[in-house]
Amino acid sequence: MSNTCDIDTAVLDQFKNLRFRKSKSNAALVLKIDAKALMVVEDIVLDDITMEDLASELPETSPRYVILSYENRHGDGRTSYPLIGVFYCPEASSDQSRMLYASAKSYVFQKADIGGKVYDLSDSEDLNDAWVTGQLKGASIRP
């Protein structure tokens, strides 16, 4: 199967670093596509962040892939750190960008070994703890 884009080897290393990190807080790897090289590259790495801080880092007119290590506190007192994927595709993005990012979405999250925890987001203002925990529980939480 042919892929629209390749993934930079540094990004593949970042996937491993995020998956096996020891810190007990939220962290995110934000990825973008270099359209000229058709390469998925690192945009920004964020450690010990809130969802609101992450939302403020996302551009208003360009899609991004977000690999998120999320501190999920359960009702019974347990804490887990699932690795989830967020496909951020704002409505203000160009059709060309939307199609390019959508075409590589499955490949990127497969390489990150996310599994079934990939969620679509079109408005960065919706990105908060309630939205993430709602997605993890299988419900769509809209403010």
Automatic annotation (TrEMBL):
GO terms for biological process: actin filament debranching; negative regulation of Arp2/3 complex-mediated actin nucleation. Its main location: cytoplasm. Residues 1-137 form the ADF-H domain. CDD domains: ADF_GMF-beta_like (cd11283). Keywords: Cytoplasm, Nucleus. InterPro entries: ADF-H, ADF-H/Gelsolin-like_dom_sf, GMF. Pfam families: Cofilin_ADF. GO terms for cellular component: cortical actin cytoskeleton; nucleus. It comes from the Eukaryota. GO terms for molecular function: actin binding; Arp2/3 complex binding. It is found in: Cytoplasm; Nucleus. Belongs to the actin-binding proteins ADF family. GMF subfamily. PANTHER family: GLIA MATURATION FACTOR (PTHR11249:SF2), GLIAL FACTOR NATURATION FACTOR (PTHR11249). This is ADF-H domain-containing protein. It comes from Synchytrium endobioticum. The lineage of its organism: Eukaryota, Fungi, Fungi incertae sedis, Chytridiomycota, Chytridiomycota incertae sedis.
